[in-house]
Design a protein that fits this description.
about 40% helix, binds SN-glycerol-1-phosphate, globular, alpha/beta
Length: about 250
Amino acid sequence: MKIYEQLVASAQKKGGGYFILIDPDTRKENELRDFVSTISNKGVDAFLIGGSLIMDSTFETTIKIVKETCSIPVIIFPGSLQQISSYADAILFLSIISGRNPRYLIGDQVIAAPAILKSGLEPISTGYMLFESGRTTTAEFMSNTKPLPVHKPEIAVAHALAAQYLGMKTIYLEAGSGADQSIPVDIIKAIRKYVNIPIITGGGIVTPDDARKKVEAGATFIVTGNIFDDDEKLSKVEDFAKAIHYKEK
Ligand code: 1GP
């Protein structure tokens, strides 16, 4: 079974799925090994690896280390065309559908497609929807796109429906890494009312309670990243996983 299908089936059974985003710039070799081995048996369903702007050229090394350290699926969450590696299992094949920048709607995808074919990665077609979150995020700046308003659920629903009608496998509701405000549950509920493809959401989710509310509102997968830059918070991984896997006893 493909990674996408496995993760969706598991999320349906458990209530939701839990992804942790690893920014390759955050931890170097041994620290990364320790980080992954500490949390890999705490209920994480997949690791996302990538970043809107990677300063060090550690992308592929990061993937290799994570793959060597655990058996959890590794999915690339690419911030640029350079972020393709056959060491991962799958890649979110993103189109920034919230924006109107042709490069990120179809341009880079055409350039990346042959490299992805060659890599053997499983592409997961993803409609990426960036929302405003109070301040300019790296994703917004780098993609030169205007984020969606958070107080207009009908605009969000229309974008999500368009993604579904275009045959995309999932939508990623993004508030931006470290966002002050995560995606409001009202937006998730409004989208879930009309759209049945899986919803990934991340950016600014810092409490298990918030994660659980988003799953109950209709999100399929929750992504946390920044919060675990602080090693002292690592014990919370299990709390997030339990809150998200709320159907599990
Ligand atoms: C961003 O969803 C990720 O795409 C993670 O965000 O770092 O704010 O948890 P945070």
